[in-house]
Input
Amino acid sequence: MSSVIEENNSPFTTFQKEYYSSPSLESFERKNSFTQIGASYFYSDQDLFIKQKGSGQQGFRVDAQSYLKNSPSTTLWGNAYYSNKNVKQVNYNESNDFDLVYPYVMADTVGGELSSESYFFSGGLSKQLGAFEYGLQISFRGVQAYRDRDPRPKNISSDIKATLSIATSLLKDYKASADLNLRKYDQENTLDFVSELGAPLIYHDAGLGVYNKVLAGSRNLAYYRGYTIGGQLNLIPSNGNGFVAQIGYHKFSFDKDLAGVADAVGQVNDQQINALLGYLQTTDEHNLSIKLIGIHKNRNGTEAKFDNRNSNHFLQMVSEDIRYRNTRNQLRLEALYGRKTADFDFYIQGKVQYFEDNQNYVSPDRTMDYQNLLVGLNITGVKPLKKAVLSTQLGAQKLQNIDANYFWSDVNWESGIYDMLTSNFQYVSSSSFQVLGKLRVDYSLPKDLNFFVQASGNYTNFTDSYQGNQFIISTGFIF
Output
């Protein structure tokens, strides 16, 4: 088997990728240059889900990625893809990028299937100059989402990221780097109706289904403008054996503006601290890596109050308060061991993860919190054949809800918002068991060209007999 195919099929390549997230350390991520062009079809569906995210999706994606070691001192890499998909049963959310702009989404009670097209481009350069290695990475993601029946959103979002990095040697066989991370995010969110039979109420969620009645009605044009600034320190062993460490801080903020309103109706300040401690050991026959990751995230939503005594003019803000708070904590321990021989490579990977999420809205008082524990195990085998390489993976994971609570006594139990809140709570508080599998074949062609086909999927069984499944099939060329 070629060294490129061996590296691409090794679970260690994926497991260690976040060790080298710093652009100035990218040259240590891989030993081999490669280019891959591929296409994939994906499908997923589940009957227990977050209403704002939908029950599943179906679509295709074409992508290209490249990693080039042009010289001992220069590394180049890039990635691009186009994705076209339909997201099923999206309700109480007519905005793009829910995980980024929550809770301040535009919403209605109808929703439905949403079509989406995404474009992504990224590129990076790492260059050794004297005692220092400099890195730069820039990416752009554009998304257009729409629906061909009422309600008809037309959303366009752009997400630009840039990372500047510098690395140098520290102690013996170690590299340390410092990163500066920047981000600019924008979204134009429009919702229209063409039916002559009327339209549902448009409202702007402020958290846990609360909305300002002054802003509800027909205000169908919103703008999101945000940015991120942050940094991260990194430490890796330059010889592939030793300890890995990272610590980072990032602050993401955005304003939500409505047409006809002079001031921002909502502002989010999101602060995240992340840390990683790992150990890495590599030889010709064995690989071992262990990592412990901790993430703390705190999001505050500041909501404006308005004077609407003169509805013929722009609404004027009279006060603003922090009314929505969301705190998330995650602790994850993962380990991967691999044994390589000329005839067969074997890998076993285990994971234990604790996650807690607490959401609060003040006046009216509403809360939702839960704590989950996940345990997973994956086994991978890679078998070289005459002109091909066969890779298989089997795995299972158990998600156990430890505790969950909610409070929204002010909500009418016959309302759609009550159904949405209780359905979302049922999802986040449900335990589940998932089995997964993957089968891949890489076939060697003349002139260092390789063809691959891969199929992967999983099946999830939730509490109370709810089910979910996902399937992806991919094919392409590597050279």
Notes: Residues 3-478 form one domain. The chain has four helices and 21 strands.
